[in-house]
Amino acid sequence: MSLTEKVDKRTQILAVAEQLFAENGYDGTSVRDIAQLANVNLAMISYYFGSKEKLLEALIEDRAGYTLGILEELNKNQTLTPWDKIDRQVEFYVDKILNNYQFHCIMSQQYNQTRSTEIKELIINIKLRNLEQIKKLITDGQKKKAFRKVDIELTMASVFGTLTHVTNSRSLYCRLLKVDETDDATYRKKIAPRLKTHLKQMLRAHLDIKNEE
């Protein structure tokens, strides 16, 4: 098997695991289920990942690594204003969560329900390193006199709390938007712009130094 074929097989296994973990839960999915749907043998999953828990760890690290890279590049960009960076961060997270609904469900399930200390620590460390990049972005805006002093951790809790609520209450919002719950494309098309506008407005009202008392 060539290196390209190995990468493709590994990617295929991760994609199938993501689908099944999201649909059936981690405990409700067996390695055999993943192998069958991915059209690979059990030995191949063992070869790449070793165990179901290690497969989940690899999935989380693979998907989360992309987010860290985006945030780091945003912080390094010297051509954008602090407000530009806030807007891009909002757009990135809304698109990321709505377009990767299955992975978001897995992260929520594992953070709240997992019995594995290793998985929970992995998720916490990912959240911490991403939060550190967001803190840098807001701190830079404060230094440039664009943002006022705020509780950064709770500011981000407000943002992610809104995103998580809308994502986890999809059935409710489909009814409010009068969208068929099975019509994913229409739902994203309707909810994404509203979420982006709301979060940008909320952050402007909260962060703008002109609103400092």
How would you describe the overall organization of this protein?
The protein is mainly α and 213 residues long. It folds into two domains: 1-50, Arc Repressor Mutant, subunit A (Orthogonal Bundle), CATH 1.10.10.60; 56-211, Tetracycline Repressor, domain 2 (Orthogonal Bundle), CATH 1.10.357. It contains ten helices and no strands. The chain has helices at residues 3-24, 31-38, 42-49, 52-76, 82-99, 101-113, 117-143, 152-168, 170-176, 184-207. Helix 4 runs parallel beside helix 7 and helix 5 (82-99) packs antiparallel against helix 7. The radius of gyration is 19 Å and the shape is globular. The N and C termini lie far apart (65 Å).
- Largest sheet report: none
End-to-end distance: 65 Å
- Give the SSE order as H and E letters: HHHHHHHHHH
State the fourth-level CATH superfamily of the largest domain: Tetracycline Repressor, domain 2
Question: How many extended strands?
Answer: 0
The CATH C-level name of the largest domain is Mainly Alpha
Strand content: under 5%
Helix content: over 70%
Whole-angstrom Rg: 19 Å
CATH topology of the largest domain: Tetracycline Repressor, domain 2
CATH architecture of the largest domain: Orthogonal Bundle
The domain count comes to 2
Mean pLDDT: 88
Structural shape = globular
Number of helices: 10
By secondary-structure content and strand pairing, the structural class works out as: mainly alpha
In terms of per-residue confidence, which ranges show pLDDT below 50 for 5 or more consecutive residues? none
